Amino acid sequence: MHPSARRATSLVVLVILLALAFVASLVFGSRWLGPGAVWHAITADNGSDADVIVRSLRAPRSVVAVLIGLCLGVAGALMQGHTRNALAEPGIFGVSSGAAFAVVLGLQVGLVESVASTVWVALVGALIATYGVQRLASRGSGASPVGLALTGAAVAAMLGAFTSAIVLLDNNTLDGYRFWAVGSVSGRGLDVAVQVLPFAVIGLTLAAFNARDLDLLSLGDDVAAGLGLSIRRARLVGLVAIGLLTAAGVAACGPIGFLGLLGGHLARQVFGARNTWLIPAAGVIGAIALLLADLIGRLVGGAGEVQAGVILGVVGAPLFVLVVRRRAVVL
């Protein structure tokens, strides 16, 4: 089979798996609902308990999970492409921590009053953190893959400490912060999806345009420039896309870690380094992963539920160690 045909087939399979995961998210939970009950809730809502569960609880959080999983999966793949580092991910590189710290500051001074304002504040924090990590890691002989990861981890730890200090000293900020600090789609309705949708759409559009630039950049900056690519413009577009996508994810669901690492790494195993295929595949994998993490959290939590961020941490941490042990750090 021709490589393009194989990649197209693989992408279709991923989309089908996403659809199945979405249906499973509607069917399973603390209360099992049959496919017939789910279909009835979607097509002929009459206010029954099953209809309320599907339309008011499971469907909205599933839509949010797909949207945010798509954003963070694509953000992870973009970061890995621009840094040429298979360890790159918004959570690991301090981008999510920067967004979270900015949101906490915004809560304290009264700038954050809605999901939309949260996205704008988170965007500023994400962009500053992204730029800061790259500048710090590139001092001296340049930013090695492991150097970027270590710098990102150090920045994330520092920003996490600052965030903890602020929320522990201010009860009002703590109340606002606890809503999404763990990383979860629980309680997120369609209103959240609608408010972050413009930022997600712009970020995903920029990522789509940036995919071809990344393929050229993978040849080396000198070769890419010789082929007519503006290196500065390509980097800037990628930076803004990463910031928008991460900010949308943090604003909607909190700082969910390892989703970008998971999406980008698994997509690379199937689609190779061709970013025009890898980036959309990473987004679909991210959406599937967040849907399944949320579903598993509902199934294992008994009367309550385990947050999706916790489930992804349990899966993502071993994956991070595996990537490091295999030395798969250079794309």
Write the layout of secondary structure elements.
Elements: H1 3-27, H2 35-43, H3 49-83, H4 95-109, H5 115-137, H6 145-169, H7 171-178, H8 190-217, H9 221-226, H10 231-253, H11 259-271, H12 275-300, H13 308-325
Question: Given the helix and strand composition, which structural class is it?
Answer: mainly alpha
- Count of the separate structural domains: 1
CATH top level assignment: Mainly Alpha
Low-confidence stretches: none
Radius of gyration: 20 Å
Individual helix count = 13
> Tell me about the biggest sheet?
none
Portion in strands:
under 5%
CATH superfamily: ABC transporter involved in vitamin B12 uptake, BtuC
Find the count of extended strands (DSSP E, 2+ residues): 0
Shape by Cα distribution:
globular
CATH topology: ABC transporter involved in vitamin B12 uptake, BtuC
Order of helices and strands: HHHHHHHHHHHHH
Second CATH tier, the architecture: Orthogonal Bundle
In words, what does this structure look like?
This protein is mostly helical. The chain has one domain: Orthogonal Bundle (ABC transporter involved in vitamin B12 uptake, BtuC), CATH 1.10.3470. It is built from 13 helices and no strands. Helix 4 crosses helix 10. The two termini are 25 Å apart.
A few lines on this structure:
Helix content is 77%, strand content 0%. The chain is an all-alpha fold and 331 residues long. It has a single domain, classed as ABC transporter involved in vitamin B12 uptake, BtuC.
Give the key terms.
cell membrane; 331 residues; transmembrane; single chain; Iron ABC transporter permease; ABC_transptr_permease_BtuC; globular; 0% strand; mainly alpha
